[in-house]
């Protein structure tokens, strides 16, 4: 399995490198072509304005006004500058290139044409790039010789802004493509390489141990499938020969002696074709792709939900109206999370996912067809109910499929898939909404949910739940929170983490970045640092937890790191402290994500504790509670003080809860030591 994981990692890395190089080459070529096509348009604008000014001055010279005696030049050039947006300067120079009159801030960096420069043919303009402007120079003639030049400079700022935005768009799309490609490659390689090789290894181990009863799924389309089919043929032939040997034993002159020999063989080997076939299994890797697609579909509308809500409300309900669909979604997730856990416990992850995907698809259709704010909020609440059930089912599936010693890394895959889907969905959803509109984008979300359901039907194995629920929802809740370790985890780790996420990342950080004068695109890129930093931190936190077995300590250290990141305004300027605090929050929450989930399967083994599905649902309920109270708490703190003071208060909360959780772990370890 280790070699399989290394193979998958190498293929993903190679594919990512090749894709990056291809996209980088195409993007660079496209940007240069775009600049080459847009530059003549800018030069034409400068030539038109310059031509108007040059003709006016030329007419004055032809009427007998000496070039050196022209008056009112400053006022005239100022009027030309104001007539066209995007001009950096309008300037009149003599034949030696010396400035006579000018208007515009860009004239400070002007340098004249060399002496003796010839006039352009056919009455055109001489074009050159001068500093941050395109300079169009038109000659002014007196008695057939050049006596001056009219210069118009059009700023490159518009072009540079467009090109810069396009570069960022290309990078974001490249990031989305890389993340999505890695998820699809993981799934494809698991189904075609890793799972078949693991199946062959299991069969070989069984055969080597003397078990000739197992048959394997024989419809695998890969090289490993050929090996599996050969092994199935070998098993069948061995069973046929065993049956023949037993028949021949009854035909001998000493049947009792032959039976004794056969009994000795039967003690070492087992024969008989099993009725149940061994298959590829679902596996944690194949569980990530449906989760990624589902979260991708859900996050397509993240960038425009408030805007769509205001549009449906006719702009009359203000900020509270814009927040209503978000509140409805989060509240539904919180309310249906425990219910989703009970469904998983009874029906298993596959059936629970299919049950949750139904309302999710209906909710997206309802949102796309909504004609008023109330209908849209109800539709988002239905989506939230489906989201709660599906995510709990995926968590339980990953916990069940986790190999021994890799629980944290398997459950860390859940958070990684969610974050990957969130980053990709948010980025692509904004592009789709801008191109095709809100309703079509929501309809596309429904299509992705249906595709996810088909993927689950094809690749997930039915079952996995208990035949009957051992305890009701309220009994499960009492049993879960009666376990001190679980209660401490929720109160001192899960809830504070989501309070910081909702209060700082999703509420305070965008407002503070706007105060720094950043554009909306720049604010989005800064906030996206959270997700980008969280992805590698999830992998690191999962690896450390599996290697050291100290998930609780990692959670506490992550809380301390988050608190210190939010205290950075004490030592750094705001323009540096804010991005670094976002990065620190992403790293801290990524480190704590996998160990927080990996603790649950062990806690569910305690006497009287509910099943893993129920405990995971209550953990998620605590996280949703933190997500709900985070933004209002940050808003209340911001109303009482400045943004910097709000960051400091949130940092102190993170430090206090992390230290409290660490002390509780130390006290528990001390009591266990004294008991031993």
Spatial order of strands in the largest sheet: 2-1-5-4-3
What's the alpha carbon Rg, rounded to whole Å? Answer: 35 Å
The proportion of residues in beta strands is: 5-15%
Overall pLDDT score: 75
Q: Give the overall form.
A: elongated
Runs with pLDDT <50, length 5+? none
Task: Please identify the structural class as seen in this structure.
Answer: alpha/beta
Terminal residue distance: 38 Å
What can be said about the biggest beta sheet? 5 strands, antiparallel
Provide the succession of SSEs. HHEEEEEHEEHHEEHHHHHHHHHHHHHH
Percent of residues in helices comes to over 70%
Number of strands: 9
**Counting H and I runs of at least 4 residues, what is the number of helices?**
19
What can you tell me about this protein's structure?
By secondary structure, the protein is an alpha/beta fold. Helices cover 74% and strands 7% of the residues. The chain has helices spanning 2-62, 73-83, 157-208, 223-250, 255-268, 283-299, 305-312, 318-347, 349-369, 373-401, 407-436, 438-459, 473-482, 484-515, 520-548, 551-566, 574-603, 612-640, 643-675; strands at 87-94, 99-103, 126-130, 133-142, 145-155, 211-212, 215-216, 270-271, 277-278. The model has no long low-confidence stretch (mean pLDDT 75).
